[in-house]
Amino acid sequence: MAVPPTDSLSDSPSLSPLTALADLLRRSRRARLIALIGPALLIIGVFMLLPIGLMAYVSMLERGVNGGVQWGVHTVDAYVAFLFEENLLGDLAINPDYLQIFARSFILSSVTTLACLAIGFPAAFYMALQPAKYRNLLIFLVTIPFWTNLLVRNYAWILLLRSNGLVNESLMGLGLIDQPITLLYTNVAITLGLVYSFLPFMVLPIYASLEKLDLRLVEAAFDLGANKRRAFQRVIVPLALPGIAAGCILVFVPSLGAFITPELLGGSKSMMIGNLIQSQFGAARNWPLGAALAFALLSIVLLAMTLYLMRFRRPPGRG
Amino acid sequence: MSRRSKNPLWRFPGIAPGAAFFFAYLYLPIFVLIAFSFNENRQATIWTGFSLDWYGVVLRNDDILSAAGNSLIVATTATLIATSVALLAALAMARHRFRGEDGVNAVIAFPLIIPEIVTAVATLLFFVALGIQLGLTTVIIAHTVFCIPFAYLPIRARLQGLDPALPEAAADLYANEIQAFRRVTLPLLWPGILSGAMLSFIISLDTFTITYFVAGPGATTLPVYIFGMIRIGITPEVNAISALMLVVSIVFVTLSFLVGRLRR
After folding, report:
1. Minimal C-alpha gap between A314 and chain B (Å)
2. For the purposes of burial, counting CB atoms within 10 Å of the CB of B216, is it exposed (0-12), middle (13-18) or buried (19 or more)?
3. Does the model's pTM come out above 0.95?
4. Do B23 and A123 touch (CB under 8 A)?
């Protein structure tokens, strides 16, 4: 990084601070970079990275008497409370409550990811096989729900799933059931809502990898006597794997931290991690525990991202 | 590329029905919601006839209007700030190669990776720790942060598609750097800027979880208000306001899509 010559500054002693700054920006590449990138980094750094650091710190503080925290009083109580509870004898025993919510979140997110893959892959493949002029339109149709309000989209599912909702009415109209079945406020409803919320995240990356797929490879497989099924299994799926992996990460990660879907479509017995965190900041007023839970969620998410990057981001040229 | 679909070998069984199912699943709830918003019945999901009444009820509700006003103030301010800083960053990142480039890209993309609930909690703790009163300002700050990557990506994409020879030609014609930027780069960059700004605007209008945590009293935005309405019960008013939000988003995304595709 070349440092600009400074002697010219002494030539013009009457520089006001502003013109001096302009002069510096004009001559120094580094100063210009900082001036251009600085504001974005400053905003994200101060209002995002710093708060997350603070959250990690709060998770190691003593809980305040009436909510909040006692600044400066350090303890690992929040992490202990996450895993253990004090029984009647005053001993610590494993507390299954929170672990159960984490387990449920993992199961629902995994099922959601698999369901998105099962529904999304055929759609992405179909799109990739269309003529170019239709492909853009189809991509656009996939992205529209992504940009529409998540809250509103989940609300639409309440209209479909409630006891006198469209699904129950249709099933009864067809004579398949006699009385409404309970769909809303179940794990099934949460899964349907999560799949709906995150489907575009699965379809778009798979489409991106299938769209780049070299057709001659598949045709070569056909020429060598592979039937469609073997060509699909041995050529298409392996080549789509980076897209599939990206899609799975992009669905699994936000599902795990979902808040709106379980809040609207799940009952009080179907909490997920997001709702548990919220309840610690709301009704339970246990901020350190809430911060600890959020930090645990963040760690899992960052771990998943790191594993994905290590496996699928190869150096350029090795594809 | 139409040979793709014409070659019979490319017809895999189940792919077309699978795609049909996918698009039905994607759009059925949206259509059902919009249809029910025109239902005259007080019971939100029992169809008895067409009516626009509930839209009238919604548009005369002062609380909804003030929440919508808050949403517009937040989205406009956050979009202006986020798009400005994103534009500056994109210009620097497109023109210079430097050490730490990957780090800068990672920080800018960071708000996209973090689960919204974590951002919400961390931001709340930050404002409370600093003793900053929760209100519209805290909402604007929080929205600006995660709007930055949404504004950045389309601008960056557009810049990458620009021919670097164009501003160089301007320089050859004795334009100074500022003139070259104003007269050559900026006009070519406009679709990207507009597209990024619209996406920021939409994302800000839609964001619920973060707003729910950092909105102080009197700073209720539309999604937060709708959430409160849904909590109380499923009513035709909720259908109407939800359908309105859907339509506004769809119109904006369509515009952003069309602008982004303007001739390069």
Report:
1. 15
2. middle
3. no
4. yes
Between strands A92-94 and A84-86, the pairing is antiparallel
Inspect the interface and report whether the beta carbons of B115 and A253 lie closer than 8 Å.
yes
CA distance A80 to A68: 18
User: Could A47 and B128 be called an inter-chain contact, meaning their C-beta atoms sit closer than 8 Å?
Assistant: no
Distance CA A7, CA A13 (A): 11
8 Å CB contact between B148 and B235: no
Chain A residues with beta carbon closer than 8 angstroms to that of B208: 149-151, 260
Chain A partners within 8 Å of B146 (Cβ): 48
pLDDT tens, per residue, chain A with 319 residues: 444 554 444 444 555 777 777 777 777 777 888 888 999 999 999 999 999 999 999 999 988 877 778 888 888 888 888 888 777 777 787 888 889 999 999 999 999 999 999 999 999 999 998 888 888 889 999 999 888 889 999 999 999 998 888 888 888 888 888 888 888 999 999 999 999 999 999 999 999 999 888 778 888 888 887 777 888 888 888 888 989 999 999 999 999 999 999 999 998 788 999 999 999 998 888 999 999 999 999 999 999 888 888 887 654 443 3
For an interface test with B, give the residue of A1, A54, A116, A129 to mutate (most B CBs within 10 A). Answer: A129
At residue A244, what is the residue type? I
How far does A99 lie from chain B, in Å, by closest CA? 18
CB A203 within 8 A of CB A123: yes
Q: How far apart are the first and last CA of chain A?
A: 31
Interface A-B, measured as beta-carbon pairs within 8 A, has a size of: 266
Q: Are B124 and A281 in contact (CB < 8 Å)?
A: yes
